[in-house]
Amino acid sequence: MKRKFLPALALAFATSQAVVAAPAGYFDFAPGTVLETGDTWISAGKRYRLYGLQACLRGTPYTDASGNKRDCGEASIAVLAAFVKDTRPVCAPVAGSTDLTFAVCYAFVGGQRLDLAMMMISEGYGFASLDSAGMPVYPAYAVAEQGAREARRGLWQFNDVQHPAILLSRAAGKRGALK
């Protein structure tokens, strides 16, 4: 009896460990993709961006707890890379053009399905994207951002972190003034 049970147990274990493919309509956001920013990546020659998420801009400095200047954009990229490596999210395209596809991604963590953009924002390493009128593209992300800011999570623990929407708005204003 024992000998019949062990092969059956081994077979059950082996099949439960099989790699699961992304559901229909989704694609894997696998480690090994090229991260351009903390919200944008290239995979199989296509460029993707997480819908509703604005990462820190590369080259934007903040001062860490030791008084050292750090690159805010690099911090966002590092956290996105860690989330992708640790959670292996799957993504679905939601909108796009020929050169950029917006996607929503989720991962299972502790048995819960979590939104990757929400993870970045609620941990303080991403920001809610704003539309041209300055309103959040997805209001739930703005609520999560406010919670992270109030709790001083992630980049919000540093006093000189600059919200990328403000920086982008200033840059757009300067371009408009030049016309």
Structure, described:
31% of the residues are buried. The chain has helices at 2-16, 72-87, 116-122, 139-151, 164-178, and strands spanning 27-28, 34-35, 40-43, 46-50, 53-54, 61-63, 69-71, 90-96, 101-109, 112-115, 127-128. It contains five helices and eleven strands; from the N terminus they run αβββββββαβββαβαα. It has 179 residues and is α+β, with helices and mostly antiparallel strands.
Number of beta-strand segments = 11
* Average predicted confidence as pLDDT: 84
Overall geometric form:
globular
* Strand residues, percent: 15-25%
Determine the N-to-C terminus distance: 84 Å
Task: Tell me the layout of helices and strands.
Blueprint: H1 2-16, E1 27-28, E2 34-35, E3 40-43, E4 46-50, E5 53-54, E6 61-63, E7 69-71, H2 72-87, E8 90-96, E9 101-109, E10 112-115, H3 116-122, E11 127-128, H4 139-151, H5 164-178
Parallel strand pairs: 4-9
Antiparallel strand pairs: 1-8, 2-3, 3-4, 5-11, 6-7, 8-9, 9-10
Helix pairs in contact: 3-4
Main attributes?
two-stranded antiparallel sheet; single chain; globular; 179 residues; alpha+beta; 5 helices; seven-stranded mixed beta sheet
Q: Would you kindly provide a brief summary of this structure?
A:
This protein has 179 residues and is an alpha+beta fold. 37% of the residues lie in helices and 24% in strands.
